């Protein structure tokens, strides 16, 4: 009810953009689906943009058109939903996707990302993810990678493009072998 009231209050001034920050947190799946349906309906009916902020990758996979993955307060990967979920390029995105349950793959244990997120008042130098990244190499601890890429799929990682493709394929293979 509180989420519906907040959405109604947000729509009173007829905005062009609705920012929904964790709109499904602490809701059961039925109410979660109703809230997402309400947001989708408002978007279609009023022709507004929606920015949905969520830690729930299942929700993002369901409703997003474009996805921005954030780490340490900065974007580390941006792309269309199918690019982010099908061909992710950043090691943090890989870790996120390996740490959530998938309906099509049965695993004994999910694979967490080692370590803890950084304090936002003490972000590590270079790539903020480097203390937790299994693929870090020479420049990672002192050169901050900028977002780059071809077309609209961008990532902030020093690994060469071909190496990202190879590493993701290898991680997927290991993940699926462990599930078999
Ligand atoms: S820049 Fe380096 S530490 Fe950061 S994600 Fe890429 S490989 Fe890992």
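^ structure tokens above, recovered residues below v
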């Amino acid at each position: 009810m509180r989420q519906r009231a907040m959405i109604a209050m947000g729509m009173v001034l007829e905005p062009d953009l609705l920012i929904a920050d964790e709109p499904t947190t602490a809701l059961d799946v039925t109410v979660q689906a109703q809230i997402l349906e309400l947001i989708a309906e408002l978007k279609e009916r009023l022709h507004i943009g929606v920015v949905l902020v969520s830690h729930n990758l299942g929700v993002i996979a369901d409703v997003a058109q474009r996805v921005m993955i954030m780490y340490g307060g900065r974007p580390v990967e941006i792309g269309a939903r199918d690019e982010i979920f099908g061909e992710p390029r950043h090691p943090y995105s890989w870790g996120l996707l390996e740490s959530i349950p998938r309906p099509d793959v049965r695993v004994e244990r999910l694979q967490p990302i080692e370590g803890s997120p950084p304090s936002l008042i003490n972000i590590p130098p270079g790539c903020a993810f480097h203390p937790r990244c299994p693929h870090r190499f020479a420049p990672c601890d002192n050169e901050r990678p900028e977002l780059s890429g071809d077309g609209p799929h961008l990532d902030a990682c020093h690994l060469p493009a071909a190496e990202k493709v190879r590493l993701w394929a290898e991680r997927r293979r290991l993940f699926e072998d462990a599930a078999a």
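Residues 161-179 form the longest helix (19 residues).
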